[in-house]
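step 4 of 6: structure.
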Amino acid sequence: MKSEPSANKTTQSAREALDAHPAGIRYALWVIVIGVLAALMPYHHEDMEAWRVIQNWDDLPCANILSTVPHTWSEVWNSVRREDFTTLSDDALLARAMSNAPNNEAPTPTVAVSESDTSNLATEQPVLESAAPPVRTRISPREFGRLRSDIDDPHDSLHRFYAQLDRVTQGEQTVARISMFSTSINGADRTSSQLRHLLQQRFGDGGKGWIPLAAGWRYQRHQDIRWEYEGWDTQIINHGAPGESRYGWGGVLAVATGPAHTLIETLARSRHSSSNLSNVRIFYQAHPRGGQLDLEVPGGETRMLNTYADEVVDRTFDVPVPNGARTLHIRSQPERSDQSTHVYGLTVENSGPGVVVDGIAFIGGFTRVLTHWPVTHLAEQIHKREPHLVIFWMGGNEATANSYRFSSGHYTRTYRQGIRNFKHAAPSLSCLVISVLDKGIRGPNGIQTLERVPMMVEAQERAAMEEGCAFLNLFEAAGGEGSVERWTQTTPPLISPDLAHLTRSGSRVIGSIIYRALLKDYDSWLSAPTGASTAQRNANASD
Amino acid sequence: MLFNSFDYIFFLAIVFLAFWGLEPHTNPALRSTDQRTAQNLQNARTTLLLIASYLFYASWNAVFLVLIVLSTWVDYAVGRRLYTENRPGIRRSLLAISLFTNLGLLGLFKYGDFAITVSGQLANQLGYSWQPSPLNLILPVGISFYTFQTLSYTIDLYRKKIDPARNLLEFATYVAFFPQLVAGPIVRASEFLPQFLQTPTLTKAQAQRGLYLILRGLVKKIAIADFLGANFVDRVFADPTAFSSSEAWVAIFAYTWQLYADFSGYTDIARGSARLLGFELPINFRRPLNVTGPIEFWRHWHITLSRWVQDYIYIPLGGSRRGRVRTYTNLFMSFMIIGVWHGSGWNFVLFGLWHATGVTLNRAFRDLRNASQVQASPSTRIRPLWVVAHFVYFAFHWPIFRGQSVDASLAYYQVLLAGDWDGLRVNISIWFIITLMGILHFCPKRWIDRMEALVCNLSWPWMAGLLVATGYALMHLAAQQPTPFVYFQF
């Protein structure tokens, strides 16, 4: 109970408040009036457009206040359940990615790329294990849908790869190998693993591809393996000068001067891929102080690999693996203090038919990294790895680094030199240059495309054309200018908050786009399998 | 509709004009000394607030309005009956109905999937092959807040501490009052319902303070919280392994300021909006990082939640009246509940564990010092050291709170403790904001009071100019789409 004086005090203050009361309303009203006038002012001046509170008159404040009111029971149900993005199909994700793109051509659904949509897979997907398709059966356009940008291959660069893919399609016991070189945008092997997954679902499981012995960068990953390692020092290609040192196919040299080990367990990402360890090939460097590697597979005998040689030389060793094995333990235990073992990595493949994709990323690397391998070393690696297609998806760091002074001519020359080194070692190697994606910066008018991105895309196209490679304008395929902003606004977001890297869902979308572009181009190749340019092929394909 | 959107500013202005338009002082047509007319006007204003509040909520999800209406109706009905009922058994049953309804809804929507997942895991551990499908229900925004509000009403009536609401209209408005509906502060019925008994007023000082609070809240949210989040913190938490240990440490310190600015910014806007409509909401933050330990922290951070837990959980459990061991147990239990209140999942269990352990140890340490006749609180000279120590202790637990899973939290801790100090890629603007927040937070309070008094006493042209200039500056700083407040997810 309050005391009487205190009650009187309260009543008095309430009375005072009541007496002073309308002053506050007048005060707030004036503020509102000034606020409204200030908000209206920019509409009288064209040059003040950026200051307009409402840019789009279709989007008036509170106009959509009742837009969540459901009209049907299914809308009620949908409004109380959250979406499980992990079960969202790639088609659905792609449709969201493109939903606000200018001149949008709605992507048509493919025949099943989603794990969750198994009914389509069971009925329509021509999986090789079950039935080999007839010779050169064209691919249904429903499988790749419509794309905003196709692969441009005027030099028929992809011929060798498609010929190999054709052999795979016809059921030969062979594998079509793709090596995809990129930067941190694929550092965790997310885009390449999506590409691997889709291609293997379509053409058969060719294996896990390239696996470094130890991560060269903090967040380097391989999505299809479980990986533990300890004791290795890694030397990465980014740090070297052109032609200075040997880094192996993956750009990471793992060096053990003391005890070191790596345990690899292969995982099955879907029912189309196998978790079996097979056709394991170790890529290593033999040298005068080379130590010994122990290779242990459960159920098999431990093999010892001596990495000694009189001079530095790149070698490979095929590890015999018993059926059903899933783990490989690699140990280095130098016997003398001056010994060391140098390992580049390993590959895990199946005998085919199938496709294998190496996801190789130089995190933080600029395009000039492609010139860092000594040419002879690169040639040896190419001959040992025997890729049918090399994909270059570089340029992400040049696009975003403030310290990098971009010059179109210099950039093109650097990129060309990198590609040339590959082509020098294997002139018939199929190569595909993929452009950078849209990259953004937060500015006064929201998120804007970085000015140099379209210039980089042009420079990359020029480099590809001048070196005889195919080119995919991924910038355009993913929605063109402004897509970085749209991709931050999708549900789920496709671009990470740094406006440069992809989220997990974004990687799925990009992997799907690259897959569709390859599939569509392969289909057009099937219409004229030899010696035709893209234009000729497309003309045939449309027949 | 987010507070940091033009939708909300427009909405608030409309509600403000309509609300005060139904007030006799501002509308000569309504001037009457008739008691009945005054009451009708009062009801009209309350109805307006209720409709506005329901529209505000419907702008997010109209279907979940059903839950608010259900909760409101059950508690109102239970409250009326509790007031007239004297038989203890029936009173207990009535209380049980309210608890079951409110906590049942909260449990279903907030903890349902977690319970299903844990049950499945447990069954598998016991050898049964059972993989239940999650419900994937959306968490209704604000459910944790309005559930606690309605519970406080029923429990206070059960304890005969308050009188029931005069009518359903006022009670429904108390539950759904839009400024505090989605993220607090958690207002007790005893604080809010009596305000309907008085004629609402808006003095010049109240209007100045209200507008200032809204301005301060918007600056905190857009210029500090969203900026830190978009330009640094979110990137590090999205993929901590891509950053060095030093960057990860800076990110958890920056996140401390981000979350504080986000949540206290929301509260400021809520209090400012309520004040412009003649209502007073309780303070929720009082320089919470300028403290020397967990106990003091919880007296300054999310005050309305800790006060609620103290009054409705800690004290009913026995509080500190039943010996030390029981006191520590009660404290531990209360803070575990605070942890789990924030969300479902093992992360939030660990989050509760972190704070429960911290507060309990803090209390034990204080008891020990009291018993040995040593000054319980640190001396002025070493106080800054304790403040810094607590700040680091507090920031260190963010990976648990922010991580999507225990694995994600562990990945962050691995980076924090990896000792990789190479590279500190933190923009100068981030350093500037962190430093500015530190200065504003730790400087003498009288400096801030003086500065606030200066702004609050501005005449209307200056206040309007300040609001317009800040509004345009924030408009250009803000993302195209307003970012939701962190506490919306709770």
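step 5 of 6: annotate
 - The first helix of chain A runs from residue 4 to 20.
 - The radius of gyration of chain A is 29 Å.
step 6 of 6: archive
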